[in-house]
Amino acid sequence: MTSTVTHATILVLTSTSYDAITKTVGLASVVVLLVLLLQKEFARIHPGPRATAWIHAFDLALVPLLITFLIIVTARLAELLQA
Amino acid sequence: MLVARQGSGESRPRSPSGSSARVSTPAGGRLEAARRWRRLRAARPYLLLAAVWSLWAAGVSSLAIDRMNDFGLISVLPWQVLLAVALLTVGAVVLLRAERPNAMTMTLYVVTLVFLLYGIPVFVEQVARFSVNWVHEGFIEYIRRTGAVGPQLEARFDWPGFFILAAFLAQATGIGNTVNYANWAPVYFNLLYLLALAVIFRSLTHDPRLVWAGLWLFALGNWIGQDYFSPQGLAYFLDLAILGIVLTWFRVARPHSERIAAWLRTPGRLRGRWAGRVFDFVTPDDEPPRSAHGAQLAALLVMLVAIFAFIAYSHQLTPFFLTFALLGLVVFNRISARSLPIIFGVMTVAWVSYMTVPFLQGHVASLLSEVGKLGDTVGTNVVQRIQGSRDHQLIVTIRLAFTLAVWAVAALGALVRFRDGRRDLSLIVLAVAPVPLVGLQAYGGELVLRLYLFTLPMAAFFIAGLLYGRPGISPSRLRQGFAIVAAMVLIVTFFVTRYGNERVDLITPAEVQAVEQLYAMAPTGSLLVAASNNLPWKFQDFERYTYLPASDGSYVGQIGTIATVLDDPHYPAAFLILTRSQGTYAEVFGGLAPGAWSRFVADVRASPWFTEVYRNGDADIFVPAGQRTASVTP
After folding, report:
1. Is B345 on the interface with A (CB under 8 A)?
2. Which of B63, B124, B162, B333 is the most buried (most CB within 10 A)?
3. pLDDT tens-digit map of A6-36
4. In this complex, do B294 and A80 lie within 8 Å of one another by their Cβ atoms?
5. Neighbour count for residue B58 (Cβ, 10 Å)
6. Whole-prediction pTM
7. Contacts of A42 in chain B (CB under 8 A)
């Protein structure tokens, strides 16, 4: 199952152009990142153990999303510089 | 007082006709006089207001704007206008002697001040001043005509929020051309700024006098002129609104963390007693945030993100200033919404990297090359600005000196408040946070100006803090007198610095008429040439023409060069337009000798390479000799 998913993901990423990836996967990750960051702020409004747990959970997802975002932006700028 | 009221109200005898009659006893006379004095005393602020408005109106109606020299508006400003602002300021200082000044009266005073300072062009200039206003009208006209934006046509369409909003409002209200109302922009934008600033200042002090004085100083110190009909004008208000919301509802009452302090005090690398002290110093307590329910706070958060989205969608620079400011507040634990700078940063970078590709394609290398070149930024922002005519150089020098003086006095104010036990860390962070941007961009030589604008609210508060908001210290008469004298200097400086370019910014109806004739004559695809961009063009069908202004006025005197430029077979027709405002631009900013522009226009008229097709008192339109274009009678 895992290898199928991995294989499918690699296939999707390699079969489409870089520009298309940044405009689909990239944009989707930006939207998810923003939604999660806002959710984290909502969780912070009501302090307590449950909110803390939620914030930690959000952090787990946010770190890879932020890294993805930085990679996408850097790659887009690099592409523009080369053009 | 109660006795006096009863005496004056109930014991008054009635005349046969029913009207009240005067009391003839000496005691009654005294009461009547006291009552009249009280009434007069209560009416004094409003009588002063009436006098101020009358003086100002008299001054503005006699202002001969066309006689300005390179010093700008101050060279023709009637003394009545200066006296009106001075009297209003004295009146405000008197009102602020009360610990709780009447809010309604002070509001009237502040609104009056804004009109007095920023409303002059509305009444003395017949059409929208400042050529950029006309360009913005062109963008709005394009959106209204086509229902779309054109990023491939113009870089500013990569941040189209303001233009779309203006087009929508113009369409919805049926007001026609927005440029007709452009001269009002500084008035309503500054009123909005002061509204947002009042929220910020009220979150920082309980002393209403400090709030009012801070607002007053902001209005007198805002010489930058970025409050014209522009995206940055609106974005600045939204920036202040976000800061007001954040500082009021999301501030942290106790930013000090004992856990971090204990860790810092533990001896070790980069740790020890001094590190603990620094930490204690930068984490002073604050007032608790204004109470709100969870749902209200959530709604505020959504509102903050929505407002910021509009800013990121509308202006290039403001999102960076705001994100840096919020980042500073989060680093020093001054606000509880710690993800906000990340959200704002992601939104800004995402917008730039995805939606401004047409702009980036031509500029990304040059933008990145400016990073870290602090010397170049200072050079383009300061040194290169001191050019043009001798009078203009003096104006620029006064502006620089004034800017430095404001920052220096504000720093003094911050020190005095610190000595009084006020830390004001949030304000200091907000004042310092945008400074790193100077190292990232020169922003076309305007970044230091913007830096001044974004630090002005904090500077105004700290300067006002020299007089008001000091614990147990009420301003003495001597201090008030000193404040009035300083305010008088500030008033004159305001008119010198704010309207120092007014001779260049002034646009006349004849120039607008000439450009309208140009559009009537020029077929689609024509080449339109001018000696500079300082004329009211591009306000209609802007994408249908190719504009070729000489950015530095270098066409002046170069008749052969202009003829070569116009003689381009790629265009169906070519036009040269020379206007009064281009001449003033060349004289004020380019240092062109007086009379040289008139000689240049006369030479073009006499040249066999050109045919004049239109002329009025302030403009000429030429075509290359031999080009068939109908001449238009003005």
Report:
1. no
2. B162
3. 777 676 666 666 677 777 788 888 999 999 9
4. no
5. 14
6. 0.89
7. 298, 301
Alpha-carbon distance B364 to nearest alpha carbon in chain A (angstroms): 7
C-alpha span between B165 and B178 (Å, rounded): 11
Tell me if A37 and B365 make a contact (CB, 8 A cut-off): no
Residues of A in contact with B302 (CB under 8 A): 38
Query: When comparing pLDDT for B254 and B101, which is higher?
Result: B101
Average pLDDT over residues B553-575: 87
Decide if pLDDT at B573 tops 70.
Answer: yes
Statement: residue B298 has pLDDT above 60: yes
3-state helix/strand/coil string of B102-115: CHHHHHHHHHHHHH
Q: Tokens representing B337?
A: 């919404």
Question: Nearest CA to B200 among B190, B211, B187, B216?
Answer: B211
Are the C-beta atoms of B226 and B233 separated by less than 8 Å?
A: yes
Min Cα separation B337/chain A (Å): 6
What distance in Å separates the CA atoms of residue A34 and residue B304, rounded to the nearest whole number? 13
Q: Identify whether the C-beta of residue B298 lies closer than 8 Å to the C-beta of residue A42.
A: yes
Length of chain A: 83
User: CB-based contact (8 Å) between A45 and chain B?
Assistant: yes
Minimal C-alpha gap between B307 and chain A (Å): 14
- The string of pLDDT tens digits covering residues B408-456 is 999 999 999 988 888 889 999 999 998 888 777 766 667 888 899 999 9
Q: Furthest-apart CA pair in chain B: how many Å? A: 98
**A73, B337: Cβ pair inside 8 Å?**
no
**Considering chain B, what is the average pLDDT of its residues?**
88
| ipTM of the modeled complex | 0.85
At residue B360, the pLDDT reads: 80
pLDDT at position B602 is 95
- E strand or H helix that includes residue B555: none
Chain B nearest-CA distance from A4, in A, is 32
In angstroms, the CA B286 to CA B248 distance is 11
- The one-letter code for the residue type at B41 is R
User: Is residue B210 within 8 Å of B424, Cβ to Cβ?
Assistant: no
B298 burial (CB, 10 Å; 0-12 / 13-18 / 19+) is: middle
Asked if residue B539 has pLDDT above 60, the reply is: yes
Six-digit token string for B468: 């008001």
CA atoms within 13 A on the CB side of B558: 14
